[in-house]
């Protein structure tokens, strides 16, 4: 199951990581799920509440998630995933990312930002049915 | 009351985005949700019966954990409960 999004949205989420460098950026992806994949229709930038350690941690306030979910539904969209950046670290999920991942069936997009410039962007699909069998599976990003 | 279900948990509510339940408190509402959709139990609660730490429950716009009566807060038929798993992470230990 691939992650599909427009060039504009792809550029947008990468640019967000450059703007917040050396801190981590984070955001919510709204769209639809089909048999072919997850289609991203809109991005919602979120504030990183981890001001104590924003260079290597992110946390999205639940209120922002609820607001995004409400707004998305009005347009017929659901939350299909999230994105964040890894300043001066690879675009690979970390033990912290994995431990804190609970949105099964959703995509977790990570962009490596090196010295302020967005480099590799990867996506991982959270699979499984619960905390005991969850896994991050690499996912193709189809920029359309 | 209406309980809004997040994307990852709809697999356990017959794909419903929201579920209407009877109940006079948050606890009763969640119990009614689990009664109607038993698979939700393990996703919302620990084996000891406590709400999982990464599961946020909002009564309208308020985090239930920070309400004076917490999960025993009274609710009316027009209230909305929203279940929203947390989102967090970071690049290194």
UniProtKB/TrEMBL annotation, chain A:
Domain of life: Bacteria
Molecular function, one GO term: zinc ion binding
Pfam families linked: Prok-JAB
GO biological process, any: proteolysis
GO terms for cellular component: proteasome complex
Keyword tags: Hydrolase, Metal-binding, Metalloprotease, Protease, Proteasome, Zinc
All copies of domain MPN, residue ranges: 3-142
Keyword Chloroplast among record annotations: no
SUPFAM superfamilies: JAB1/MPN domain
Protein species of origin: Granulicella mallensis
Protein name (Swiss-Prot/TrEMBL): Proteasome lid subunit RPN8/RPN11
Keyword GTP-binding: no
TrEMBL record, chain B:
Keyword terms, alphabetized: Nucleotidyltransferase, Transferase
Record's keyword annotation contains Transferase: yes
Superkingdom of the organism of origin: Bacteria
Transmembrane segments: none
UniProt-recorded Gene Ontology molecular function terms: nucleotidyltransferase activity
Pfam families xref list: ThiS
PANTHER family xref list: SULFUR CARRIER PROTEIN CYSO, SULFUR CARRIER PROTEIN SLR0821-RELATED
Annotated protein name in UniProt: Adenylyltransferase/sulfurtransferase
Organism: Granulicella mallensis
């Amino acid at each position: 199951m691939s992650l599909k999004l427009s060039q504009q949205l792809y550029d947008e989420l990468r640019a967000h990581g450059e703007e917040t460098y050396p801190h981590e950026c984070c955001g919510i992806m709204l769209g639809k799920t089909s048999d072919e994949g997850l289609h991203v229709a809109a991005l919602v930038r979120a504030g990183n509440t981890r001001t104590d350690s924003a260079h290597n941690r992110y946390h999205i306030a639940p209120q922002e998630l609820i607001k995004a979910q409400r707004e998305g539904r009005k347009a017929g969209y659901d939350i299909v995933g999230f994105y964040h950046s890894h300043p001066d670290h690879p675009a690979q999920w970390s033990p912290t990312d994995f431990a804190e991942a609970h949105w099964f069936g959703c995509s977790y997009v990570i962009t490596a930002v090196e010295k302020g410039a967005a480099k590799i962007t990867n996506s991982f699909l959270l699979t499984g049915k619960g905390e005991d069998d969850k896994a991050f599976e690499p996912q193709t990003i189809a920029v359309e | 009351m209406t309980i809004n279900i997040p994307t990852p948990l709809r697999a356990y509510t017959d794909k419903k985005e929201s579920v209407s339940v009877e109940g006079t408190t948050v606890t009763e509402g969640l119990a009614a949700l689990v009664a109607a959709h038993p698979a939700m139990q393990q996703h919302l609660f620990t084996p000891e019966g406590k709400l999982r730490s990464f599961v946020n429950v909002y009564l309208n716009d308020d985090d239930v954990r920070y309400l004076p009566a917490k999960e025993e807060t009274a609710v009316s038929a027009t209230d909305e409960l929203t279940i929203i798993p947390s989102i967090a992470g970071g690049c290194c230990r």
